[in-house]
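Quick one:
INPUT:
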C-alpha cells in the first residue's frame, strides 16, 4: 500500500523514547505526520526535532496522561495543529516486579492508571476524529495481556484490562470504520535489560530481574516490531502477537489451565 501513510496524522503516547520513539520513527518514514504526547522530561523536544530534520511535520505535547485535564489539553492542541487524527498509538506504560501478595492496592492502582486508564482517556479524547477519518487505534499490550507470569506484580492485570478494552473497542467501532489493533509482544531488546529491575526485584528469584520475568525468548528489536505494527494497520488486523508461537500457549491455557501453568513454569 505505497503512499497509504502520506500526510496521515499519527499520535503516539510515550513517543519521546524507547519503543514509542521507534513507532514514531517508522510512521514518519512512511510519510505520516507525527504528534508525540509524553512527559516533558527533557527527551520530548529532541525527539520532535529529530523528526523534523527528516522533513516530518511533527508536534510534541508535554502531558501527564494520568490526568484528564492534561489529556484534554493535549488532544485539543493536536486538533488545532493538524485538524485530524488517523492513528492513535497507546504506547505509554511501564512494567513492574514484585510478588503478588506483596503488591499493594496502591501499586495496582498506580499501574492501572498508567497502563490502562490512560489508554481509556486518550482513546475517548481521539475517538471523534478517528471515526471521522476511519482510522486506527493501536493498543500496546504484552504477552502478559494473554498469560500471566510470576513476580511481575500488577503488570499482567493492567495488560489483561487493555486486552479486554481492545476487544470491546473492536466490536463496537467496526461498523463506524475504525480499526483496532492489540499488539502483544514479548520482551523488547534493551541496553539495560539485565539490570533494569535490580532494585525493584529485591529478594525475588534472579529470573525476576530478567526481561519478561525470565521468559525464555529472544528480545525483539523495537524497529522490527514497529514495522510489523505499521503493516498490521495497513491490513487492518485485529491482533499482532510476537513471537507468533505464543498463540499456542494462549490456546492451551484456555483449554487446560494446568497444562498452561506447567508450560509457563518451564518457559520462565
Amino acid at each position: 500500500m505505497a503512499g497509504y501513510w502520506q500526510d496521515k496524522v499519527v499520535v503516539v503516547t510515550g513517543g519521546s523514547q524507547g519503543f514509542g520513539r521507534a513507532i514514531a520513527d517508522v510512521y514518519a518514514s512512511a510519510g505520516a505526520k507525527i504528534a508525540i504526547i509524553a512527559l516533558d522530561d527533557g527527551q520530548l523536544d529532541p525527539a520532535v526535532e529529530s523528526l523534523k530534520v527528516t522533513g516530518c511535520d511533527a508536534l510534541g505535547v508535554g502531558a501527564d496522561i494520568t490526568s484528564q485535564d492534561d489529556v484534554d489539553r493535549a488532544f485539543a492542541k493536536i486538533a488545532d495543529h493538524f485538524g485530524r487524527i488517523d492513528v492513535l498509538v497507546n504506547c505509554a506504560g511501564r512494567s513492574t516486579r514484585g510478588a503478588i501478595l506483596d503488591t499493594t492496592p496502591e501499586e495496582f492502582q498506580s499501574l492501572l492508571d498508567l497502563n490502562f486508564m490512560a489508554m481509556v482517556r486518550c482513546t475517548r479524547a481521539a475517538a471523534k476524529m478517528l471515526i471521522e477519518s476511519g482510522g486506527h487505534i493501536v493498543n500496546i499490550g504484552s504477552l502478559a495481556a494473554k498469560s500471566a507470569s510470576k513476580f511481575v506484580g500488577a503488570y499482567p492485570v493492567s495488560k489483561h484490562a487493555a486486552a479486554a478494552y481492545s476487544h470491546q473497542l473492536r466490536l463496537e467501532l467496526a461498523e463506524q470504520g475504525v480499526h483496532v489493533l492489540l499488539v502483544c509482544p514479548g520482551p523488547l531488546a534493551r541496553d539495560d535489560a539485565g539490570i533494569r529491575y535490580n532494585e525493584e526485584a529485591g529478594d525475588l528469584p534472579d529470573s525476576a530481574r530478567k526481561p519478561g520475568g525470565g521468559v525464555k525468548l529472544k528480545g525483539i528489536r523495537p524497529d522490527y516490531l514497529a514495522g510489523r505494527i505499521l503493516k498490521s494497520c495497513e491490513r487492518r488486523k485485529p491482533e499482532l502477537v510476537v513471537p507468533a508461537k505464543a498463540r499456542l500457549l494462549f490456546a492451551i491455557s484456555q483449554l487446560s489451565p494446568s497444562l498452561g501453568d506447567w508450560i509457563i513454569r518451564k518457559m520462565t
